[in-house]
Amino acid sequence: MSPQDPNHTQDDARKDPEIDRWFRALGPPPVGHAPLHLHAKVRARIAQQQSGWAVFDWIPRVISPVWTVVLAVGLVLSLGLNVWWSVRTLGLISPRANQSADSLQRDLAAVASLPTYRFQVAMQRAKALGMFVTAEPVRSPPVVGFTPQAGGTTFFHMGTLYAEALATLHSGAGEATTQRLDVLVQTLASVQAPRVLSDYLREMLALMQRRPHEGEVLTTFLALFEPLYGDVYARNNEALMLFRIGAWLENMYLASAAGDHTALQQGGQSAEAFRSALIQLHAPRAATETLERLRLLTTRQTLTDQDVGTMTTLVQDIQRVLSN
Amino acid sequence: MIDRQRLYDDAYRWEVVAGLIQNYEASIMQYCLTWLGEGLAEEITQEVFVTAWAQLPRYQPVESLEAWLHGIARNKCRQTYRNWARRRVIAQTFADEIRKRAHIEGQPSPGDCESQTPLRVQLSDSLARLSDMDRMLLNLRYWKERQVAEIAEIMGKSEGAVRKQLYRAQQRLRELMHEPPRP
Would you tell me which of A2, A160, A187, B113 could form a disulfide with A246, CB atoms 3.0–4.6 Å apart? Predict the structure, then answer.
C-alpha cells in the first residue's frame, strides 16, 4: 500500500516521506517461493512428533504453565544434585571403589544431560569405537581468527574432540585419549574458556596417570565434563550448541563406521533439532542441507549397508564444512 | 469440506493437511518470509503445517481454514519474535536482504535509475549500523509496509512503544544517511 493509495490509513500517513523514498529505491520486498518437498518435510516432522507423543501427550492436558515452571526448576535442581553427587563420589574414590563402578555407571546413566556418553555406551560395539577414532590422525587445534565464524568452528571442534576422547577411553586406548585431551585443553585456552574446564581436563589427565587401568572410573569422570561444559556455557547458546553438534556428529560417524543401524536411527531423532540450531547460528547452507539428507536417511524403516555408507560420507561432509 | 468425525484418524487428517499444503503453502511461506526473512521462513512454514496437523481436531468451522491457518502462522511468527536467538537471526536476515538488494546488478527495480544504486548501498550500510530492533522496525514498516498495529502485535509490544521506538529508529537512520561519507 502506498501513501497515494486511497485505502491508506492515518497510520501510513505518519511515514517519514524521505525514509519512504529511500526504501522505495530498494524495489519490492523479496517474494517467497513454495519450499521444496514441503509435503515430505512436514510428514517427517509429524512422524517424529507421533513417536514422541505416545509417552508425553498427557502432559499439556494435566500441567498448567505454573506447574511446568515448578517442574522445570525441580528437574534442574535434581540434575545438579546428581552431577554434584557423582563428582563428589569420584573425588573420594579409592581402589575399593572399583566394586561400586557398576552402580556408579547406572546412576550416571540416569543423569539426563550426558547425551554423548549415553549414546556411546548404548552402542553394540561400544568397546571398539576407539578403533575408528585412532584410524584418523588427531585433529590439531584450529587457529582462532577474528571472523565471526572462527569461534563457532572452535566450539564445534571441541565437541568432536570430546566425543573422540570418550570413545578412545571406552576402548582403553589411553594414549589416543591423552592426545585428544591435550588438544582440547589447548583449544579451550585459545577461546579463553573459563578455567574450570581446562582444570577439570587436567585433573582427568592426572587421574589417567594415577589410575590407568580403572577404565570405568576414567570414563565416568570424562563423561561428567559434558554437563560441566553445559553449565559453564549455559548463557552462550552458540558455544553450547556447536559443542553438542560436534559431539553428536562424531557419535553419528562412529555409529556409521561401526554399522550400528539402531544407534544411527536413534541418533537421527536429534537431527532436526540440531539443524534448526545450525540455521539459527547461520551455519553454511551446505551443512544444513546435508544434515537434512542425513536426517531423512535415518527415518527409513530399515537401513541398508549402502545407506550406512552414504551416512558416513554425509557426516564427514558436514564435519568438513563446519570445521572450516 | 472436512469430515470432523474422522479427524482423529491419522491417515484422514494427513490427507486434509496435504490439501492445505497444496493450497496454501505459497501464501503461508510469503507471510513468514515477510515477517521473518529467508533464514527462518521455511522452518516456520513447516511448523505451521505440523501445528495445523496437531490442532486439526480442535478446529471450529466458525472461520475458514485459510483464516485458521493464517492464525497459526501469526502465532508462530509471534513466538519466533519472542525468542531472543531467533530475533537475532531475523535482524541479520533483514540486513542481508537489503544488502543483497543494494548490491544487485542488472536488476533495477521498476522506475529505478543508475543514480539509485549509491542510495541503496548507503541505506544498506546505514541500516547495518543500527541496532537489531531498529533495523527490524524500519524494515517491516517501510519495506514490508506493515502497519504499526500489526508490528506491535507480532512483537508483543504496545502500539505506543513501537511508535516511540520507530520514531527514534527513523531519527538515527536519518542521522546516519546524512553523515558525510567516511574517507
Answer: A160
Tell me which of A147-151, A169-173, B67-71 is least confident.
A147-151
Q: Is A169 in contact with A219 (CB distance < 8 Å)?
A: yes
| Nearest C-alpha neighbor of B89 from the set B98, B79, B81 | B81
Q: Contact A181/A205 with Cβ under 8 angstroms?
A: yes
How far CA A77 is from CA of A63, A200, A312, B165, in Å, comes to 19, 22, 38, 39
Is the Cβ pair A42, B53 closer than 8 Å? Answer: yes
CA distance B46 to chain A (A): 6
Query: Grid coordinates in use for A106?
Result: 547406572
CB contact under 8 A, A35 and B45: yes
What does the block give as the cell for A63? 500441567
Q: And the C-alpha cell for B127?
A: 541500516
A35: closest chain B residue by CA: B42
Nearest Cα to B2, choosing from B59, B54, B71? B59
Q: What residues have CB less than 8 Å from B79, skipping those under 6 apart?
A: none
Rounded distance between C-alpha atoms, residue B68 and residue B61, angstroms: 9
Q: What is the pLDDT of residues A114-164, one digit of tens each?
A: 788 888 888 877 777 877 787 777 766 655 444 445 567 888 889 999 999
Half-sphere exposure of residue B114, counting CA atoms within 13 Å on the CB side? 0
Residue A66 predicted with pLDDT over 90: no
**Inter-residue contact B102 to A17 (CB < 8 Å):** no
At A285, list the grid cell: 547452507
Are A9 and B17 within 8 A, CB to CB? no
Interface test with A, best of B16, B25, B58, B83 (most A CBs within 10 A): B25
How far does the CA of residue B62 sit from the closest CA of chain A (Å)?
24
Q: How far apart are CA B72 and CA B53, in angstroms?
A: 11
Q: What is the pLDDT of residues B90-140, one digit of tens each?
A: 988 888 888 888 876 445 555 554 566 788 888 988 998 999 899 999 999
**pLDDT(A215) > 90:** no
Q: Are A161 and A229 in contact (CB under 8 A)?
A: no
User: Looking at this protein, which amino acid is placed at residue A112?
Assistant: A
Sign of CA pseudo-dihedral A188, A189, A191, A197: positive
**Is the distance from CB of A41 to CB of A35 less than 8 angstroms?**
yes
Mean pLDDT computed over every residue of chain A: 78
State the smallest CA–CA distance between residue B183 and chain A in angstroms. Answer: 23
Which pLDDT score is estimated for A7?
A: 43
Q: pLDDT at position A191, please?
A: 82
Q: How many CB atoms lie within 10 A of CB A223?
A: 23
Query: What sign does the CA torsion over A198, A202, A207, A209 have?
Result: positive
